[in-house]
């Protein structure tokens, strides 16, 4: 990325006692919601349909006006920001994508830059840069229309459009919800790679707890009226759900989900060499290692470093030890690195 477009890192978002009661309703859709989101954090809102996730998120960019309470971005009250300032500071991606069908991909991405009065060259350069960022070749895609793109490609354009003015904050409402599972996983990985570079502050709404675990720095598990049942890292929520409501959300397979978060390199590896049927990378997850163990018929799996050299082996005991050192015999538990 050129120096002129060094990305804006995230901003702090603070919601204090935010309540929204829709006109004609007695019960608020969101009641006394408070949250402090650090710059660069990726926060997932998960909860059942109708619990108030979207209403809470849309109050941050004022698509919905709060009935009471305050919301600040880097200390500034969002109610005091004019519409252009809001657009500059907050990108917005939605499930329905919302690309304009009669505009080319380049024109779609240029919508906010145009509103902000950027000149043609700056806008064109930014469009090219962003298409490259979301892995769509500008030569092929800039002049196409949305209907000439697959769902996954359209969703990438949606992300590029939200990033156009390099906002420090991104709001994402089920952005990958309408894609098939394989495309969805691909978009999630791309998105994580992108976020590693950009470090935006992101509020991401999803129904899918596994998506929340995969993407989130912290997850807010919400119940009716956007009440926060637990707000913590994926690993802590999986290991210690705060109550039955959260446990239900975690669902079955909590141990497998936890393994998905831990790199193989965190386990105490066995000695390299010996008979192994399969290999796994040191940065792959323990869930991948378990998968390889199942396919190898239980034979230890050889662990390779980034250069492809064998650095040790992993087996089922060593995987279990990472999750439950405290309940295993001391000899095994002792080998686990924190
Ligand atoms: N414009 C509106 N007028 C009145 N009630 C509304 C309005 N929009 C949403 N609601 C109600 O507010 C509550 C919260 O809705 P919201 O869309 O925020 O939930 P959600 O958790 O995002 O749901 P979903 O996952 O289904 O999108 C729901 O009971 C909904 O029916």
Automatic annotation (TrEMBL):
UniProt entry tagged with the keyword Acetylation: no
Enzyme Commission number, as recorded: 7.6.2.9
Presence of keyword Nucleus: no
Residue span(s) of domain ABC transporter: 13-250
Example of a GO MF term: ATP hydrolysis activity
Record InterPro entries: AAA+_ATPase, ABC_transporter-like_ATP-bd, ABC_transporter-like_CS, Gly-betaine_transp_ATP-bd, P-loop_NTPase
Alphabetically ordered keywords of this record: ATP-binding, Nucleotide-binding, Repeat, Transport
GO cellular component labels: membrane
GO BP annotations listed: glycine betaine transport
Family (UniProt): Belongs to the ABC transporter superfamily.
Protein name: ABC-type quaternary amine transporter
Source organism of the structure: Paenarthrobacter aurescens (strain TC1)
């Amino acid at each position: 990325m050129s120096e002129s477009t060094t990305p804006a890192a995230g901003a702090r978002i603070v919601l204090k006692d935010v309540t929204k009661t829709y006109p004609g309703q007695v019960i608020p859709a969101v009641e006394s919601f408070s949250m402090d989101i650090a710059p660069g954090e990726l926060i997932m809102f998960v909860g059942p349909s109708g619990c108030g996730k979207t209403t809470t998120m849309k109050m941050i960019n004022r698509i919905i006006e709060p009935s009471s309470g305050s919301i600040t971005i880097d200390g500034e009250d969002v109610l005091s920001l004019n519409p252009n300032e809001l657009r500059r500071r907050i990108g917005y991606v939605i499930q329905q994508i919302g690309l304009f069908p009669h505009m080319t991909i380049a024109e779609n991405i240029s919508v906010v830059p145009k509103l902000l009065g950027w000149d043609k060259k700056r806008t064109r350069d930014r469009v090219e840069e962003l298409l490259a960022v979301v892995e769509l070749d500008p030569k092929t895609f800039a002049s196409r229309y949305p209907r000439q793109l697959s769902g996954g490609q359209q969703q990438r354009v949606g992300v590029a459009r939200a990033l156009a003015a390099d906002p420090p904050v991104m709001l994402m409402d089920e952005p990958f919800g309408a894609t098939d599972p394989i495309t969805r996983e691909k978009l999630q990985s791309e998105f994580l790679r992108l976020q590693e570079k950009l470090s935006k502050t992101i509020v991401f709404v999803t129904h899918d707890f596994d998506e929340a675990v995969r993407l989130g720095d912290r997850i807010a598990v919400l119940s009716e009226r956007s009440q926060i049942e637990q707000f913590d890292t994926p690993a802590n929520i999986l290991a210690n759900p705060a109550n039955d409501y959260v446990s239900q959300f975690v669902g079955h397979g909590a141990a497998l989900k936890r393994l998905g978060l831990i790199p193989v390199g965190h386990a105490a590896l066995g000695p390299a060499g010996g008979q192994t049927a399969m290999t796994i990378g040191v940065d792959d997850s323990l869930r991948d290692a378990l998968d390889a163990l199942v396919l190898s018929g239980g034979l230890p799996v050889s662990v390779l470093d980034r250069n492809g050299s064998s650095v040790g082996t992993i087996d089922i005991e060593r995987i279990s030890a990472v999750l439950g050192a405290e309940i295993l015999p001391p000899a095994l538990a002792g080998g686990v690195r924190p």
